[in-house]
Amino acid sequence: MKGFAQLFKxxxxxxxxxxxxxxxxxxxxxxxxxxxxxLWHSRAVVALxxxxxxxxxxxxxxxxxxxxxxxxxxxxxxxxLSVPQPGWKIALxxxxxxxxxxxxxxxxxxxxxxxxxxxxxxxxxxxxLFGLAAEALFQSGAATGWLFKMTxxxxxxxxxxxxxxxxxxxxxxxxxxxxxxxxxLAGLAGFFVIQWxxxxxxAAGYYVFSWVPDLVLWVPAHALGITDPAHSMASLPVQGxxxxxxxxILLGNALGFVLLFITTSYLLENVIEV
Amino acid sequence: MAAEMLVQTDNLMKRFGRTKAxxxxxVAIPKGIVVGLIGPNGSGKxxxxxxxxxxxxxxxxxVKINGVPVGLRTKAWVSYQPEIDHLYNWMTVEQVLExxxxxxxxxxxxxxxxxxxxxxxxxxxxxxxLSKGMRGRLKLAVTLSRDADLFLxxxxxxxxxxxxxxxxxxxxxxxxxxxxxxxxxxxxxxAETEGIFDRVIFLDEGQIKVDEDAQTLRSRYGRSIQxxxxxxxx
Lengths: 274, 234
Hints:
B: 234 residues; alpha/beta; 28% strand
């Protein structure tokens, strides 16, 4: 594990400064929005707290590639590939740093969102949906539970999406290094093929894992737009609908991503030339 | 006999597009000698070393270290120094050593400390702030601090100032244990290094032109390896 720890530390250093800068940027953005409550429309302020969520996905895209590109730019790839370190360790350290960076930013963005959302409840005169959500989040029993659960589920799904994106992009970048010319096009083509393969794995999973029970999410009636949103959520009867998510597709996709990671590791260890 | 050979290549072929970088190289190098891999630019020296290090894969033929096809396992026995700067600029000398030490099973800290002292390297200095000569010295320290069976040094003197060259050559001799370590050193700076060669391989256009014991060559032709080098590549 010593080798992995050093690889991780080295890869983290390569994106560390930008990770810190983006983290500070997210915090400053949320502080700025907090100061706008009461001055700007509350709904707009709360909506703007979600901007970092979009930015950090772009960040994952850039960093997933940069952490590999950096090796070729610095010549460090000569050292990394000439020592007896298995491909999976090299690939895992590069995936882990992107994921760690994404996790930090996701936590900061989520905390900022909740902070501003909560504060916006004091200015809820003009807002409806976010005011309701804020109210529910901090005042209502059953609805609060549901909101917390949904926040966790959404956050987890978003988190996994970041990981999946990084796995696909890193394999696409590795594929691009298999050619000596038109690397960008090779990487782009690789990315589309990889997406198609993941889709294929999901489809296969639908049949292969059909015996696995589906995931069930309970969605309150108001969240489906059944009730009048002008009413307070706290006074709503606790009723709603069940939403089924096919576990087979999810498992198929998860296996697909594992296979992609194994492929990246294999390419690094046995195919990539420098 | 073959089992005693450290390096064995058979009809080794590597192409880049239409160019044959190595064209059917077959050599057997025993343990414990210093081999000078000599040739002009583009003769296939770097490609040959990369094939031994496992950084390139042959299109044809085979390459084995200790009888094992080159791969993850053989990398544990081979310490490779590329011609280019391959150390991270933002690291300090000490961080480079720690990083390299964590990746290999045969790191010798006492040897690393000895080399750092001998090569006048400051442990706290940042790689990015080192001169080319000092970076060359650091690369050498990283390569020679291992207790590998085979050391592959690609143009260790290229672009290095004369005082650094002398230090580098002394370091090569200092850590080398005849009979145990094997060293393949590619260069076209023959005059300064020929004294340490036991065997010389002349490469041209990816093919072996001469492969002989260094002393035999000198005796037979009555001139230095540098003299032969000039004659062969004229």
